[in-house]
Specification:
Layout: E1 2-13, E2 26-37, H1 49-64, E3 67-71, H2 77-88, E4 93-96, H3 102-116, E5 122-129, E6 135-139
Length: about 140
Amino acid sequence: MEVTKEFNFELAHSLGFHHGQCSNLHGHSYRMFVTLKSNKLTNGMVLDFSDLKKIVNELIVDKYDHACAINKNSQYLFDKVLIKLLQKFNKKLVILDFYPTAEEMVRHFYNILSERFCNDILVKEVVLYETKSSFARFRNENI
């Protein structure tokens, strides 16, 4: 049995390595779908949707919503200055050890959630829409 819940958050980032528009600081209205799988139902449920909401909000949405995500290892001066500026003015910042592309972010979110769920409930898939028509998917093909 599988269940899926949708989550929404706003996040800014810059991709200094990019040779197009995405090298600029910009934001997205992300839509994320988290799918859990279990062969064992508790009270007829894989997991209560309100419990799933609480967990995902705590681990991901609350941290990333209305923040700016930047790669701490970026070699681009803009990214280095932006980190210092956001810290100086106490603005919401998520410092990562990778560039915050849709592909890397969805893998990161999958890993965060997979650490939380284990045993009877597993994370089957996380899908992250960066725009209305563009998304990345990370799926555990073994479950």
